[in-house]
């Protein structure tokens, strides 16, 4: 342990890496290693929670801080008054009028609403209003109906179970026949726990827990030939048993036929498709259809599943299930609509606030709530600027996305089209989708860079039903859920490296009607009687985040939080220390990279302490370093086309830290399937990605202070 006084006289304890010179014959090298016990004890010492004391040179600094605090308090009051006058339920009801539902992506009603929103942005007198168009491939139901049947030994139809009203976009269009096996929710563990193999069989799974796409990918990895998905009564107690269900099966986001490319008109890209598209058919069926299938199945489902008593495990002898999917691809024009309030100091630095506009079915909870919040926030912030004297330093972009129901297509195509400039200018995405699904809980999914800001906001905003602050648990960050594929914030974080947050007021149970024809305004009001109050609270959360991100001089992104994320990863690796040693590897370089990242964050904090906040030029340079932290965790060693979600913490693919740990677990569980060459590459590339992030955070090359 070394204790120094590098930060304005404030003591800081940290662990130094030992430099041990080893001599073996004629060969010698310098080895940087952290002893096992030292590494384990480092948890409390390497968190880099440096007290943020500012070096102030004179009354100007203190005066500036006082003015900032005064204006923040004043802005919160200003926001609160504007929110009190907002008509959230009226806007939600307007969005769910007959003129705009149903509004499936690319439909006439979707386009009509896009231009209605554009006109409203103009009415609000935003700085600029515009839209862009993308031409994307969307899968729709074909002219021939999809079907699910029970057949006998000679493929003769015993019972036509259903011609489903819903469908799953991006399913393979084909016909398959085989034994049917129930796989609970279709998680990897569910498949591993099954006593009946699914190889060559169809599987039936419940909706919930994970996305449709993940269920299908898991089934395909266990060699199933088709998937049926239904909403069981235990988890989704909907009275009507014949409610159709919609979803998509693309394990990814964006147009799966232009992976990594923007789908602008006339773009000439070679024919390609996303590796996340399934190679098996998948279809949703109603609960009534599932119960009809269970009558031709046998074996009681495990009590641990907590499922309907009608559930059965596998097809009866001499009975199989035939699934036919006739979906077709259709090129559609989709429209994203934008408006911006330009910043007064740094208009070229901005946050993006967005919501999905389209929906299969009425989409009251799925898209109307988020779109209503978007419109009301645009109106409120415009009023604050034009009438109340608010002068945000940075810009606010409001975005209405299309084709969100098909895998955040509108948002992803926009990111793909402008990635080269967005990562230099956009520093946060706030997602408003499904922000009100209940009243009891407040749930957050976000980049660690935003945790501290979210916590401040939770302390300021009260739950309208309990009248208590949203912040009730000091360990709330342990409950933060990873952004899922079906969240529009996911591509911002995992593809573009832009910090993102998504939140909702909700219940412990899933909202019953998402992705169904019952997602109506009336159903939402019945589920959330205090809809206007809850929408106001959601708008207040987003509004306070927007103020703090665009008004304060320093970017409200806590780069030090990634020290904890790296530490957590190293802890996970240390559980496999014996395996790593057996392969002749060690973690010395990873420890060094981790230390360098810690020192880089400490150096940045020091630079911030020693800078006059009135020096806009220097503060901009510091803020630029802060806003690129997330981006530098995108692995530079994989192709954006082959592995678009390059983030090593939150992405998807063999380059991620979770994939590295999974590979090590495989060595213990199934050594025959373990790939040592892959592991060596994973460890090397993960180490250098962290090292690269540390170097970038340090600033100029002559300021880099590392032990590599």
Automatic annotation (TrEMBL):
Keyword Cell membrane: yes
Transmembrane domains' residue ranges: 56-73
This protein's GO CC annotations: external side of plasma membrane; melanosome; recycling endosome
Keywords: Cell membrane, Disulfide bond, Endocytosis, Glycoprotein, Lipoprotein, Membrane, Palmitate, Phosphoprotein, Receptor, Signal-anchor, Transmembrane, Transmembrane helix
Family: Belongs to the peptidase M28 family. M28B subfamily.
Name by which UniProt lists this protein: Transferrin receptor protein 1
CDD domains per record: M28_TfR, PA_TfR
Species of the source: Tupaia chinensis (Chinese tree shrew)
Quaternary structure (record): Homodimer; disulfide-linked.
Membrane topology annotation: Single-pass type II membrane protein
Post-translational events: Stearoylated.
Compartments in which it is found: Cell membrane; Melanosome
Occurrences of domain PA (ranges): 176-249
Primary location class: membrane
């Amino acid at each position: 342990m070394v204790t120094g006084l590098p930060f304005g006289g404030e003591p800081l304890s940290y662990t130094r890496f030992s430099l041990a010179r080893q001599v073996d014959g004629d060969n010698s090298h310098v080895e940087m290693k952290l002893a096992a016990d030292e590494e384990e004890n480092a948890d409390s010492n390497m968190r880099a929670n440096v007290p943020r004391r500012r070096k102030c040179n004179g009354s100007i600094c203190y005066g500036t801080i006082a003015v900032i605090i005064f204006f923040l308090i004043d802005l919160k009051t200003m926001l609160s008054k504007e929110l009190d006058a907002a008509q959230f339920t009226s806007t939600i009801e307007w969005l769910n009028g007959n003129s705009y539902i149903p509004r499936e992506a690319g439909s006439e009603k979707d386009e009509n609403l896009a231009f209605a929103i554009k006109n409203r942005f103009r009415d609000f007198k935003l700085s600029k209003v515009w839209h862009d168009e993308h031409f994307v491939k969307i899968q729709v139901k074909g002219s021939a109906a999809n079907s699910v049947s029970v057949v006998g030994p000679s493929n003769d139809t015993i019972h036509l179970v259903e011609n489903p009203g819903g469908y799953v976009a991006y399913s393979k269009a084909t016909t398959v026949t085989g034994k049917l096996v129930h796989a609970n929710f279709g998680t990897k563990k569910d498949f591993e726990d099954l006593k009946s193999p699914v190889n060559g069989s169809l599987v039936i799974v419940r909706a919930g827990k994970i996305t449709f796409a993940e269920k299908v990918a898991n089934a395909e990895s266990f060699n199933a030939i088709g998937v049926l998905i239904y909403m069981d009564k235990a988890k989704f107690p909907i009275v009507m048993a014949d409610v159709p269900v919609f979803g998509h099966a693309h394990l990814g986001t964006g147009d799966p036929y232009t992976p990594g490319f923007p789908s602008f008109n006339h773009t000439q890209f070679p024919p390609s498709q996303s590796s996340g598209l399934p190679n098996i058919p998948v279809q949703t069926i109603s609960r009534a259809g599932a119960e009809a299938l269970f009558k031709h199945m046998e074996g009681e489902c495990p009590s641990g599943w907590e499922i309907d008593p009608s559930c059965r495990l596998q097809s009866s002898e001499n009975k199989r299930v035939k699934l036919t999917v006739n979906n077709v691809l259709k090129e559609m024009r989709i429209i994203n609509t934008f408006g911006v309030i330009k910043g007064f100091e740094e208009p070229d630095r901005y946050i993006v606030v967005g919501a999905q506009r389209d929906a299969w079915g009425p989409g009251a909870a799925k898209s109307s709530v988020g779109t209503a919040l978007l419109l009301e926030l645009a109106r409120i912030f415009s009023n604050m600027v034009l009438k109340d004297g608010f002068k945000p330093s940075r810009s606010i972009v409001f975005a209405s996305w299309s084709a969100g129901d098909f895998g955040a297509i509108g948002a992803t195509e926009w990111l793909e089209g402008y990635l080269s400039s967005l990562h230099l200018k956009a520093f946060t995405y706030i997602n408003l989708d499904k922000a009100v699904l209940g009243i009891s809980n407040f749930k957050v999914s976000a980049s660690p860079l935003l945790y501290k800001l979210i916590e401040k906001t939770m302390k300021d905003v009260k739950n309208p039903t309990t009248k208590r602050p949203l912040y009730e648990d000091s360990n709330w960050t342990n409950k933060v859920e990873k952004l899922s594929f079906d969240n529009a914030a996911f591509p911002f974080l995992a593809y573009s490296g832009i910090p993102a947050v998504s939140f909702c007021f909700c219940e412990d149970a899933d909202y019953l009607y998402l992705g169904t024809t019952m997602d109506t305004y009336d159903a939402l009001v019945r589920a959330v009687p205090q809809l206007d109050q809850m929408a106001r609270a959601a708008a207040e959360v987003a509004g306070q985040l927007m103020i703090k991100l665009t008004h304060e001089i320093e970017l409200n992104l806590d780069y030090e939080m990634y020290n904890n994320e790296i530490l957590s990863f190293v802890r996970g690796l240390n559980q496999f220390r014996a395996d790593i040693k057996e392969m002749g590897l060690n973690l010395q370089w990873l420890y060094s990279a981790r230390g360098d990242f810690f020192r880089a964050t400490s150096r940045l904090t020091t630079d911030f302490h020693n800078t006059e906040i009135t020096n806009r030029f220097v503060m901009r340079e510091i803020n630029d370093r802060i806003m690129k932290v997330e981006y530098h965790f995108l692995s530079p060693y994989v192709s954006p086309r082959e592995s678009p979600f390059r983030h090593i913490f939150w992405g998807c693919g063999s380059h991620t830290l979770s994939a590295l740990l999974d590979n090590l677990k495989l060595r213990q569980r199934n050594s025959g399937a373990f790939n040592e060459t892959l592991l060596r590459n994973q460890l090397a590339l993960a180490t250098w990605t962290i090292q690269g992030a540390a170097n970038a955070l340090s600033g100029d090359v002559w300021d880099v202070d590392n032990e590599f």
